[in-house]
Amino acid sequence: MNTLSLNIPTFRPYSIGFDRIFDELSRNMRMVEPTKYPAYNITYYEMCEAHPDRYVIRVALAGFSSADIDVEETDNTLTIKTNEAYAERTDMTDVDPAHLGDDIHKGIAERKFTLSFQLADDVVVNSSTFKNGMLRVDIDRHVPEEKKPRKIDILEMN
Known about the structure:
Elements: H1 19-31, E1 40-46, E2 53-60, E3 69-74, E4 77-82, H2 84-89, E5 114-118, E6 123-131, E7 134-141
Antiparallel strand pairs: 1-2, 2-7, 3-4, 4-5, 6-7
């Protein structure tokens, strides 16, 4: 297992009001269990000024259909997982073993999975699409007006 070490106390003297974020980072770093299945990419796109940040998650799901997958957003967590329809479709408990062939080579990993991603407060999951065994989830960062940069006037004191 790969581990990442981040010395958060060194950042604290240079930041104000980030305690909750640092605590969340520390907690998430302890909880993260790296996964290799299914394979996925996260791509960042710098868009226009109206939508400056877009993230796209692509998940390789050969052998699955869109009916087998659930994409859910709850409490700043995006979860992509197999659903009950997939479990029922792949349930082989009532099949006579004599009717099942013997795999000579089994290289396709068709099994249940759950992927979870922590989302920032200002991130919105816009859509998900499934085509040719690839799931695509579009995520945008929406910066509210009150969080956009503003110039602070300097007043002259006499």
